[in-house]
Specification:
The chain is built from five helices and two strands. By secondary structure, the protein is mainly alpha-helical.
Length: 111
């Protein structure tokens, strides 16, 4: 069994990217997360440098996601939704909380 080491600084970058992609705005992402636009920009740059690919394009109507950005956003939005569902189930004391998110992840991966 392989154990993963989660870099919390990188997790913050993923959170900043997800909010930016959801809103297609660094400003709105910054407001959501209670940080400055500069922090959001730095966090997104960390991911772009790690991947070696841009995540956003400048568009005439504002920001747009690149193909890599769309792929990453889709994965993050899905993962964050599953985690949110699990947290809500735990708060409610739902007995089936452990199996449902895992089943949802398996069905999404195979579909």
């Amino acid at each position: 069994m392989t154990h993963r080491c989660y870099d919390l600084a990188f997790f913050a970058a993923l959170e900043a990217f997800e909010a930016s992609a959801r809103h297609l705005s660094f400003h709105r992402a910054a407001c959501d997360l209670g940080v400055t636009v500069e922090v959001i920009g730095r966090q997104v740059k960390i991911i772009e440098e790690e991947l070696g690919a841009p995540l956003f394009l400048e568009a005439t109507s504002g920001m747009a996601l690149t193909e890599a950005g769309r792929d990453l956003y889709t994965a993050l939005a899905s993962s964050f939704a599953v985690a949110s569902d699990a947290l809500i189930a735990i708060k409610r004391g739902d007995d089936g909380r452990a199996s449902r998110p895992a089943q949802r992840m398996r069905s999404r991966a195979s579909g």
